[in-house]
Design a protein that fits this description.
The chain is α/β, with parallel strands linked by helices. It has 13 helices and twelve strands.
């Protein structure tokens, strides 16, 4: 036997107010007395009332919908950002329509943009997408509040990024501080902003220390970490430390080292980037650079909502990553320097 869902009139009766007053509370009308608002909110909570989305849209001209376009949802970074944004949006009373796109397929992202146009969304968030996709979003949805995540800074829209350049500096300087001078970097995809910035951080740290850089271009996959690791460890001139552009690459390198009879960190120190949940349980546990996706989601949604109220000057905000030191890196000994 089903229980009848409460409606706006049930809330009004319980709170002892008119249904118009309940509507004003739902739409954050500024003229309400605090005690009246409190009575209505208590009634809403007691009855577990959920306002009809279509009815609210007629009153406010807002859909309470945010479109999220994201590429690479199988990867830890984009999926972590996606989850944090969806959670924070729900907390703020918004629903998120997530559409996964192929960043290099114009047909894919134009179809996604077309879907969002038909939904009368209030805001759009893009994650890890090229500039040409973002330009199409701006042109097709000019009235939607736009916030861009994990893309190169621009004066044309708001950008929220992890400070990947500083993350690259943190990782490389940690190894340099342990006495390593032969440090190799395995990068992510050469055409992606996050990968480029992490590589740049590595190069700047090495240059400042007067050290020679060595970079192998990769992607974000474990299999590439294994393949490149076996290539590195087949050489007679081994590095003493490796900085991988993400933790999955590091996992592949750990397996390659095992295949070659090398020990981490005794023979090779290893550091990753992301701090995936499994990183603590690698063997050995992985030193890495942590991205705070929960805080990023909070900032992204706050920026969208702020732009819906009053559009301000576009800005780029950088979230600072944090070095997490575990067992995969160690001080370079005099014996290993030879």
């Amino acid at each position: 036997m089903s229980t009848k869902k409460a409606n706006i009139y049930d809330v009004a009766d319980l709170a002892g107010v008119s249904h118009q007053t309940v509507s004003r509370v739902l739409n954050n009308h500024p003229s309400l007395k605090p005690e009246t608002r409190a009575k209505v909110e208590q009634a809403i909570a007691k009855l577990e009332y959920r306002p009809n989305q279509a009815a609210r849209q007629l009153v406010t001209s807002q859909s309470q919908l945010i479109g999220l376009l994201v590429s690479g949802t199988e990867l830890y970074g984009p999926s972590g950002i996606l989850k944090s944004i969806e959670s924070e949006a729900r907390t703020s009373g918004y629903s998120v329509i997530t559409i996964s796109v192929l960043s290099r397929s114009r047909e894919s992202w134009m179809d996604a943009i077309g879907q969002l146009r038909g939904l009368n969304i209030d805001g759009v968030i893009t994650v890890a997408l090229p500039r040409e996709v973002i330009d199409e979003v701006k042109a097709a949805l000019p009235d939607a509040a736009l916030v861009v995540v994990a893309t190169e800074p621009s004066k044309d829209f708001d950008v929220i990024n992890i400070d990947d350049l500083n993350g690259g500096l943190l990782a490389t300087n940690h190894l340099i501080g342990q006495g390593h001078t032969k440090i190799l970097h395995i990068s992510g995809p050469v055409n992606q902003y996050e990968s480029q910035m992490r590589k740049l951080g590595y190069e700047r740290a090495m240059k400042k220390a007067g050290l020679k850089t060595q970079v192998l271009d990769g992607d974000w996959s474990i299999s590439t970490g294994l393949e490149l690791g076996e290539k590195i460890f087949s050489s007679k001139d081994l590095p003493t430390a490796i900085f991988c552009s993400n933790d999955h690459l590091s996992l592949g390198v750990i397996k390659a080292a095992s295949h070659k009879g090398l020990r981490i960190p005794e023979d090779i120190s290893l550091i990753g980037f992301d701090d995936i949940p499994e990183a603590e349980y690698f063997l050995p546990s992985l030193t890495t650079v942590k991205q705070d996706f929960i805080e990023l989601g909070e900032i992204v949604i706050a920026k969208v909502l702020s732009n819906l109220k009053e559009k301000s000057k576009n800005e780029t905000l950088f979230m600072q990553p944090k070095l997490i030191v575990r067992n995969s890196t160690t001080q370079l000994t005099a014996k290993k320097r030879k």
